[in-house]
Structures are given as C-alpha cells and as structure tokens.
User: Fold this.
Amino acid sequence: MRYEKSMVTPQAPVSEAAMASFADYNFPDERGHFGRFGGRFVAETLTHALEELDRVYRSLIKDPDFQREFDRDLAEYVGRPSPLYFAERMTRELGGARIYLKREDLNHTGAHKVNNTIGQALLAKHMGKRRIIAETGAGQHGVASATVAARLGMECVVYMGAEDVERQSLNVYRMKLLGARVVPVTSGSRTLKDAMSEAMRDWVTNVDDTHYIIGTVAGPHPYPALVRDFQSVIGREARAQCMAIEGRLPDVLVACVGGGSNALGLFHPFIRDEGVRMVGVEAGGDGLATGRHAAPLCAGVPGVLHGNRTYLMEDEDGQIIATHSISAGLDYPGVGPEHAFLKDLGRAEYTAVTDEDALRAFHHLTRTEGIMPALETSHAIAWVMEHAPNMDPEQIIVVNLSGRGDKDILTVARHDGIDL
Amino acid sequence: MSRLATRFAERRDAGSSTLVTYLIAGDPAPSVTVAAMEALARAGVDVIEIGIPFSDPEAEGPDIQAGCERALAHGVRLRDVLDMVATFRQTDTRTAVVLMGYLNSVEAMGSERFAEAASEAGVDGVILVNLPPEEAGPLRSELEQRGIDLVFLLAPTTTDARAQRILEQASGFVYYVSLKGTTGAGHLDVDAVRERVTALRSMTPLPIAVGFGIRDGASARRVAQFADGVVVGSVLVRSMGDLAGAPEAIPAAAEALARELREAMDAA
Assistant:
C-alpha cells in the first residue's frame, strides 16, 4: 500500500495555465517535459535504450510482483520505513517550530540513495543487463550502486571525479570492498558533472549489456521521473508518520538540493497539499555573491546539459562553469528539471547555505541530538537553525536527514585544523 | 542547389565519395583555424565541420575532449567560431561549412540570433549532437528560413520506425554514426555499417555520410565504397593537438592527412 498510484509515471500533459491549483499536478508529459524543463537531449545512440527503459519501467511499476519485490527489498534489505524522529533537544534549544528528522541516514549504506539503486537494479535485472554503471559525487550513490550490484552479482563500474576521489577516500575504499571498479575522471573540472559525462560515454559504448543507474532526479527522460518515483517512498512515509504522530500535515518540508533526489523524494507526495511549504537548500559555497557556489536554482539560467533542460550554472557563451561546495554531493552545476519547474511555478522555494553555515549545522546537530549528518544534509539543517526560532511552537518542520556524516569526518577535521 | 548538396552531387557524379573533415575552432590556437581550413580545402576536402568548443562534450572521446579544452583555454566563444567561418568565406565560397556542437552553445546565443549570425558568416549546415528531432522544431525553422540545413544523426541503435521519422525532418545529408561509442572509438565494423547504410538508402534520397571510427586512408577507402560521404575527425584533431607547440606546422600536416584520405577514397 506504500506504492500505490503515486508510483505511476504520470502520462497526461497538463497545461500550466490549467493548474490554478496543484490538485491536478501530473508531470512529466509523455516526452519527459516538466513545462519547459526536462526532455531527452542525448546522442542518438542512447535514444533507443532510453525508450526501452521507459517502456520497461512503465510496465513494471504496474506489475504487483515487481512492486512486492521492491517493497520487500526496501523493508528487509534497506530497513524501511525510516523513522520520523522528533528532535526534542534541538527544538528546545532553537525555541521555535517542532523539528522532525526523516532518518534516511539509518538506511542500509547510510543515505537515501539506496532507495533508487534498489529500484533501478531490479529494472536492470528485468531488462537482462549484466553490468551496472554509475556516477558519484560524495560516493554515497556509488556505494549504493556497488552494494546492489554485489547483491545481484553484477559487474559495477563507478565514475567519480578525480577531485572527489581524493576528498571522499573512505567511500572510494568502500566501493572497492564491494567489488566495484572506481574510475577517477580527470577531464573538465574533475567533479560530479565530469563523472556523469564519462558515465554517459561508457553507456553509449556498452549500451547493449549495461544499465546506467543515474543517482539523481536529472538526466534524460525517463530518469527524472523514475528516480523521483523510487525516492517518493520518503515523502509517503513522512506524510503518514506525521499524520500518525501529530494528527496533521507538516507546515514546512526542508531538504538539501544538489541534483535534488532526496528533496524531490520528500516533496513529491506533498505537492498537491498546497498548505505545506517546501524549501530546497542549495550549496552556497563561499556565498552566492562570490560566484564560488553550486546553486543553479538560486543563481543559474535555463540551459541543456546531461540530457535535460534545467537551471544551470553557465557563462554567457553557454559553457558550464566550475562549481564549489564543501560537500561533494552538492557540487554540481545543474539540478533536476522538476525542481526547475517547481521553482518557476512557485510551488517550492529554493535558497542557499554557505559552507561555513553547513559546517556549523553539522556540529550543532551532532552535539544536540547525537546524530552526525552528511555535509550535504547539513545545509538543510542550517536552514532549520536559522528559521525555526522565528516560527510558532505549534508549527512543524520535517527535514530530510538524507545521509549520515561518517564519510565527511576527514573533511570536517581538516577544516577544523585537525590532522587525524 | 545548396552548397552542401552540390558538394555531395559532384563527387557522386564523379563516382567517388565526399570527404568531410572535422576540426575544433580555436584548437590548438585560434590563429591556426582558418589556415587549417584553407589547407584542408586545398587537399580536396568537400565539407568542413567546425566544432564549437563546449565545456561538457558528453558524446566525444578523449581526442575531441582534449581539443575542446585546448580551445576553451584560449577563451574561444561561439561568436569567434562564426568569425572564423566568415574569414574563411572571404577566400573560399566553394567548400561547405557545417557547425557541429552541443545545443547549449546555441541556446545561450538564442536560436534566431544564432541562425542569423550563422547565415551571415556563410554556414551551410548545423549538427547538434544532443538535439533530437523531437525537440528541434523551432531551431530547424529558423535555420531553414535562411537556407541552412539542420543535419541529424542516425545510429546503429536507431530503429527503422524512428529512422523514418528522423529522415522526414532531415536535410542536407544524413550523418550515420558507424558504431556504438564516442568519437574516435576503435571498433569499426565496416560490413555492419555497409548493411545499415544500404538499408537507409531505400528510405531517403539524401546523401549518407558515415562517421566515428574512421582513422586512416584504408578505413576511409572501405567506407567510401558504399557511403556518399566519409567523416574524419578525431585523428585530425589529435594530429593538430600534437603540434600545439609548433602551430605553424599544422596547416601542412592537416593538408597531408586530408590528401592521404582523398587519394585513398578516389582509389576506392
């Protein structure tokens, strides 16, 4: 019952003008468009594979056996449902809204990423693919991909920017232990965007036997819809849990946004509940004014990259510009097209938090609740620290605690001037 | 008849095949590009594809990725690429010029402004690797109004039904991607390509050029036996990149490479 109607990729196009309320929200259209965003902008060689993926996905999500298999894996392998935890001490110290943490950090492998890799690995199995490839930034998606590949006995290759290989060495070793091959990508800016380009190059070469597990709600259609649907288990659970605990829906949902899969997973089941405010927090890096950040929704323009039209950080010639964030998982110049659409519609709002504020939030949550968040997640916590005190104590914030921070300990120590 | 159509028709009538070569504007240095284009034309190249350098060339192999990075290091912009074509056109009105790149470069300039500027510069065709026909409508009509062909790619994975739909929108020529892979890959199966090109020929009157993985006179000759055009890119880009330290030697090297290809194809 957790995977009912909302799992189905919406088919019918709805004009934006007709959307006086969000009760009719039903995107993307059959060509993968979220209004002017999304689509399928890829080299012709990949079109057939994407059409095939779309076809298989649409049929499997209606298949009760597939749903049962996915459901069982999430329960018995991932450990779902993840708790909705009332952060009592943090709430008291901030002195405002009641703060709940959706504990995706407690999932197997330590982040929300595994919800999607479980789903896509099942798709790959049904399509008869024997090889999995993935891109990764912080390494969480790479670990989650390597994990499901190990479990299914599939070959796994993970592309990772050479810079990220250095700053996320623990996750690199985890992937290797799981039997994956980690390929450092040295082209371009040597980060997540270049890893994604390199994964697409692998896929175009090995498309017959390989499934590309994109780790976020970006890429060519059907990935943005497919990843969102697999991640929407977060929001469906949170919605039911909040109703059970508080007897009503939350006032605000907060999540960090890199590509945007944990945010959309939380937001999507609430889009039609117009009273629920949705806040996505991008990586402000050294501050939006410095240009050294990774906040395309706050400071980007629409463009086309990695198969979809979305907000991008680019210069006036359309060249993608280098991004910066202390968190490798947010260090990406684009964002999922549905976020771009929700921004334009005004249904979700997007803001940015600097590296410094994210680090402060990392320490704060660790000390007040004994929960060490990922640096990505710390951006969402920082928003809560700033805004919860100004809210009414009757109000409810649900923040997606998208991942745990063990992987970031070396980065935090280095920042604090400690040599481990 | 358009310059592109004429270049294909002439070679076909002569019992040969059209030679298409690719280089990246501004690679390895902006001062080299026009001279290299002139050298290619002298060697018998019929169509010059000019790559628009892009920061994230996701369909390219290592050679063209490196070439894009070299050009971008010189700050080459789409505006500069068009200026190079315009300069080339001052002395050469015969060789067809096709811009090749990624959609974001064109979108950043705006479809209408781009089409206008390309027309003024003397561009004959445009290939955008990540622009599928389903999304191409507005740009295609802007280009069409100015007599510029929007060239589409077909791949080994393209189904017949889809090929039919693409061919209905295609103009200029059809670019058949010879292999599953990135540019410059090394696993060309000429017999499989021949079979597919023969099948496509029954579906379109347009000339069919074959690219990806053709790296020397021998492979160019084999493809020229059945294709209307042979596209050579990565090997030229690599040889130009290898001469980055001696840019004055690049036009002659490009000319020698093109001549070898031309002679091999004419012997086909």
In short: The interface with chain B takes residues 31, 39-49, 187-188, 193-194, 196-197, 200-201, 204-208, 302-307, 312, 314, 316-321 of chain A (CB under 8 Å). The longest strand of chain A covers residues 277-285. Chain A has 16 helices and 14 strands.
